[in-house]
């Protein structure tokens, strides 16, 4: 749903555009309840489209043990939520959630940069899927 700033030269505030139909408050423009397809293109959004939220599980292989705090810091820097932990397989695993574009940045960091003094052999990602809302409130290290 997107707020519309104007339609056919008239400025309308607080108007919502949902599913291809302009939803007007009852008293905004008397008698108009929707906008025909022919003039929908004249509606301009006041905000960018919301990015799809995704969740993805990851595991990083190599000399990566004891470096989870750096992964947590990078997740927080990117304003993602999720978790990270060391495993008994000498890997680091976790889950990332956030806007798709930002999660892709974190995946690149896990694959190619990682924490100082680590050696990344490979990073795997699984169970990537869209989510309706974030399931965590921050990025944390699990013990």
From TrEMBL:
Xref: Pfam families: Acylphosphatase
Gene3D superfamilies: 3.30.70.100
EC identifiers of the protein: 3.6.1.7
The UniProt record lists the keyword Ribonucleoprotein: no
Catalytic reaction list: an acyl phosphate + H2O = a carboxylate + phosphate + H(+)
PANTHER family per UniProt: ACYLPHOSPHATASE, ACYLPHOSPHATASE-2-LIKE
Name this protein carries in UniProt: acylphosphatase
Lineage: Eukaryota, Metazoa, Chordata, Craniata, Vertebrata
